[in-house]
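Can't attach files on this board, so I'm pasting raw text. These are the components:
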Amino acid sequence: MNYFWDLFLGGLTRGSIYALIALGYTMVYGILQLINFAHGEIYMIAAFTALIVASILTMQGLTGFSVLILAGVIAILYAAAYGFTVEKIAYKPLRQASRLSPLISAIGMSIFLQNYVMLAQTSDFLPFPNLLPQSEFLDSISAWIGPSDFIIIVTSSVVMIALSLLLKFTKMGRAMRATAQDREMAMLTGVSVNRIISRTFIIGSALAAIGGLLIASHVGRINFYIGFNAGIKAFTAAVLGGIGSIPGAMLGGLVLGLAESFGTGYISSDYESVFAFTILILILILKPDGILGRSSQQKV
Amino acid sequence: MKYAPELKRSATIALWLILLTFPIMVIQVNTIENIVVWRWMNIAGVGTVAFVLSFLWQIYQHRKTESPLPVSAHLPAFQRLLADPKLYRPMLIFIAAFALVFPFTASHYQINIMSTALIYIMLGLGLNIEVGLAGLLDLGYVAFYAVGAYSYALLNYHFGLGFWTLLPAGALLAAFFGILVGFPVLRLRGDYLAIVTLAFAEILRLVLENWNALSFGPSGISNIPRPGLFGIELTLEQSAVYMYFLLIALCLLTIFVIYRLQHSRIGRAWVALREDELACQAMGIDKTRAKLTAFALGATWAGMAGVLFAAKTTFINPASFTFMESAMILAIVVLGGMGSIVGVIIAALAIILLPEYLRVLGDYRMLLFGAALIGMMVFRPRGLITPSSRTYVFQPSEHQERT
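---
Top answer:
Structure tokens for the assembled complex are below.
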């Protein structure tokens, strides 16, 4: 196992998580043209919920796979419910307002949720149990890939493929794409836009919850502030790939993760985020609509 | 009962929120000692607050649909007040008198808070050029503020230059940095611009945090001198008062300059740029120049505010220049009602003074502040002052009457 391979895997792991969170940003942006600053907080709340549920289950004597499944499912459901509620409270009343008003209420929501978790739980770092399962198969490949790296990469790939299929082939997916393309026209063809927006928030939040669960398990500790940095990075990834584009968010996440991993590995570990942001600026100067973004022709 | 359906809905919403907040609010686990604390009382709190708030919200919605107000009444009270010179002149005199008397009646602490608010008025007005007038969404405005503060601190530390030399120097350096950021992002639109400005600000902050040889790292720079007054020695209290008046003077200058800019040729070009980029180009406006001047002028005020901030607090470190600051300044501009000077001033006072006076609430301060931001946006999505563009009335000339 050499250094390069290590960095590559680390970047891939990190990038998959960024991609999972970035999908929520890009889906919401595609439909509402809103940067949902509270999205990172949903990811943080999911990690906290999973921690609470897992701890209680472990104290009841449960172990292994059942804890992971139960804690995971509850965390994902709760994250989805939070996403749904946040949209109803902070964004829905602002549907008709100028584009910056929901942005400010999103920032307000982000501050609110951070402080809510800090006050109700704790401001310290909490240790997060490793929920990822152990098996003989994972031990056998541990020579060239760490078990949690493997699980993160595989899980996020499966989730992303599932999402792409959902958007491509189901009726709901088609309605979502239609709403993203032209909200009024979609409404005229009988799409219930409010319901589609709610579902977008639910799906995006669930994806963020999966990301939160995986990374919390991998890193091993959480606090109320983790959502903020992850949110900014994931948003960067979404823009890097071309905001509004689903494959763009995935690619952007991976590029960002690899850039950070190689940058910290070969140049300097102090400037982790600087590499991510520099790559972003360079790519946007060369391709102003992101890597996979549509170059939108503007008309008067 | 008159409000039966509303009460029922509020109850449903309260139940939903109790369910939603259950794991975070009620359960607290201690994984080290394996203890679970169940705080059942919190359910009652969440339920009551949710029920009351949702009920009030529904009543508000009900009232709004039942008796829509006449158009003129849609303007908030103080905006109607501003439209009438008979009313606003005495008010201006009152505000001026208050501003003059304030430092001699208030405590040292309150003067300091007010000075901070005045700095934010300058920042808000500066960002207003970029976001409010030119429509360039800048999420990294704090970078220019940092450039100003660090230029004062570092140039003073290394070369011993004074406040009055460095005030324009800091402003100029920030303007230069503004052009530097402006150039690569000229091609970008909307939210791409937003994220790139954010990226620039984060890069600057991280460099300041890690490049110890240049910036003294996270520990920051202390003992930055306060501004001098013709070599007179001032006590701490006196210098706070002096700083306050200095800020008042500079705020008045800012207001004057921005007011004049707004209605100048370049100001109208910015508004045109904000409304429609392509149409604006078609009208013969140099897009590059308009955008760069917006960045440079916006950054100038941030640079000046940065110098003043460093001189006021006498200590700076990178932690003062996080994304949260940019977000606060942006909140001031949006809440003020994009492009309105009076709105920005009121919003800056509200956003800076509110958390300070909420200090009595202790830990709940930021929680309520977040909620207040959402509330202010939901109730006044266009901001406190609805910007109205100047309208030009067509006056038929003699020539046209003859034809």
